[in-house]
């Protein structure tokens, strides 16, 4: 740096190599005008038409009183749940279960649900009446989406931490899913809380994975749902959970900027700030709301069009009550805050259905009631005293 300045000023080493010369040398540095060149990185901006398409998809997903249904469980994930119900885990039974959900009363379904995250298998399944399940959703003005990550794998160099695979051929897969009727995607990375985790390695690695995923999806004209799930299956308190949420989200959004992700064309999916399920202190909804909103205020840019919550680590009832408390909380909230629930919407309906075709209407009624409660909670209009 100093040698560059000297060259610009015609100052040789010999003319500034004595103590006596130093004041004069400093004066010349201060008074002489010179320019030091530095490389400027030029970024390729997204085309206006692409931005408009992404915003249009976001607008269809982010509607007051509506949320997302996460129905992207893999066949292996459904195994234990079906086993507990005595239902054989076959492709036909998985299709029948999802058909039961998607064929619920059209007016109510579309009133509470704006989008559904699907598993690859479901995208290409048809109903018993030979109607594509994706078409069944479109008939209800519900936007189909698709889970595109390939699951968790051990993160080498860490202590029992994970990253998520699936970036290989992601663009080709997204292009095909777009052709087949899906308009948004989801990718999940997880972070466990302990005295030593999440590590810097895990946070930085997963932030880059999520950012690369988001960039690829946007290039394929699909809105990415970015899910950095902070797990609550530890013994940590809510203060420790708040610290981790803030650190993970801060690193994530810095990385999203570095990858030039279009923030207005994405959705953030996060866990609420909760104490660990093995912690003896169970925080009330107001404390959960305060810690959750504070963590988001400190880390998530207002440009993000929506934040949706997952229900992991909570009972069905707590997921609804805590969501309502978050929306009632009086702090500054520049983003819509709604739900993207799987089990909190499906648990009771699945148990009611239990593979019995004669129980379809009963199961649908239960599902729609859960969706109604989540809708009210997303507006901060839930009355817990009326029963949940």
Automatic annotation (TrEMBL):
The domain of life for this entry's organism is: Eukaryota
Known InterPro entries for this protein?
A: Aldolase_TIM (IPR013785), FBA_I (IPR000741)
Gene Ontology MF, one: fructose-bisphosphate aldolase activity
Q: Where are the transmembrane segments?
A: none
Q: Which UniProt keywords apply?
A: Glycolysis, Lyase
- Pfam (any one): Glycolytic
Q: Which Gene3D superfamilies match?
A: Aldolase class I (3.20.20.70)
GO BP of this protein: glycolytic process
Query: What name does this protein carry?
Result: Fructose-bisphosphate aldolase
Q: Which organism is it from?
A: Melipona quadrifasciata
